[in-house]
Design a protein that fits this description.
With 303 residues, the chain is an alpha/beta fold. Helix content is 45%, strand content 15%. The chain contains 14 helices and nine strands. It has helices at 4-14, 21-32, 47-57, 74-77, 111-114, 118-123, 158-161, 175-183, 185-189, 200-212, 217-231, 241-257, 265-280, 291-298, and strands at 36-40, 62-66, 78-83, 88-93, 100-104, 125-128, 131-134, 140-145, 164-168. Helix 10 crosses helix 12. The longest helix has 17 residues, at 241-257. It is globular and about 70 Å long.
Length: 303
């Protein structure tokens, strides 16, 4: 049976993102696995609403950062300013010092500004003027990006993409969900505080439970076979050891969300496109998932 707190959380988030239970569960899977999430979709699909609702429901401090082409790294990390009264330089923290960061339209910022998130996402700390500052715990980045064919975008480099555990798309709502939105349009445009379903402590407990989910040796061999297949095809960039670890942890987290204490091949098949596709794709214009499905079809889960 699914964890009761997770079930309540999913039900609450469904009130914000109508008809998208599967996408909500995948987003929570990434958070429970201590990963950062990249959401690529058209504007107006509910990406910002989902991140706000997740932060409120899990009682996490939250900051939305709107990325633009003229933004500088200091606008995100903070800046050191000389204080005349104290006769010394004082660091003024930037908006990144929150538990959940929404990097909105991240691919509209220059590569230099994008790279300011690398250390934060990998090590949960930042370095400014030679001084290191630890970020709040837990710390998550949920980034949104517009499709690369839209004007004014800078493709995310491979090193940046690799920092995101999962990449997903929300997609258009079903006709029934969109009809419900139109019937209650006033409610959809209001931003109301959501009840707290989790807090930082209970969230960390769920993250620890993910580590306790069991995976058989045959399951590990299946993951390694998928990774090996990605490295042996000309159609993809081979997956790194970091990616193979991300596949396992995301599969464990998905199993927990589904209410199981062990991982089955179907868990790996569900999360593999979201963990692997953005790491393997050689073209930013490729539709996802493409390469990941080819590899899934090549590898037999019964090894």
């Amino acid at each position: 049976m699914p964890n009761e707190n997770i079930a309540i959380l999913v039900k609450q988030l469904e009130q914000v993102l109508l008809g998208k239970q599967h996408q909500i569960k995948l987003a929570l899977t990434c958070i429970f696995a201590e990963g950062h999430l990249l959401i690529e979709d058209q504007p107006g699909m509910g990406k910002t609403s989902l991140s706000q609702a997740m932060a409120q429901s899990m009682s996490l401090s939250y900051q939305r950062i709107q990325f633009t082409s003229d933004m500088l790294p200091a606008d995100i990390l903070g800046v050191t300013i000389f204080n005349k009264q104290q006769a010394k330089f004082v660091f003024h923290p930037g908006p990144i010092f929150k538990q959940m960061i929404l990097a909105d339209e991240i691919n509209r910022a220059s590569p230099k500004t994008q790279s300011s998130l690398l250390e934060a996402m990998a090590e949960k700390q930042i370095t400014v003027d030679g001084e290191t500052y630890v970020l709040p715990s837990p710390f998550f980045v949920i980034a949104t990006q517009n499709p690369s064919e839209q004007s004014g975008t800078f493709p995310l480099p491979e090193s940046q993409l690799d920092r995101f555990m999962m990449k997903l798309s929300i997609g258009y709502p079903s006709p029934q969900a969109e009809m419900a939105m139109l019937k209650d349009q006033d409610k959809q445009t209001r931003i109301e505080p959501l009840p707290q379903c989790l807090n930082a402590h209970s969230l960390k407990e769920l993250q620890q439970q993910v580590n306790q989910i069991s995976a058989s040796e045959a399951l590990l061999k299946y993951i390694l076979a998928l990774v090996k297949a990605s490295r042996e095809t000309d159609e993809a960039i081979g997956l790194s050891p970091r990616a193979s670890k991300a596949i396992l942890k995301a599969a464990k987290s998905w199993a927990m969300v589904q209410g199981r204490q062990y991982v089955v091949p179907e868990d790996v098949q569900t999360i593999f496109p979201l963990v692997a596709e953005h790491r393997m794709s050689r073209s930013t214009n490729q539709q996802s998932p493409v390469i990941s499905n080819i590899i899934l079809n090549r590898v037999n889960p019964i090894l």
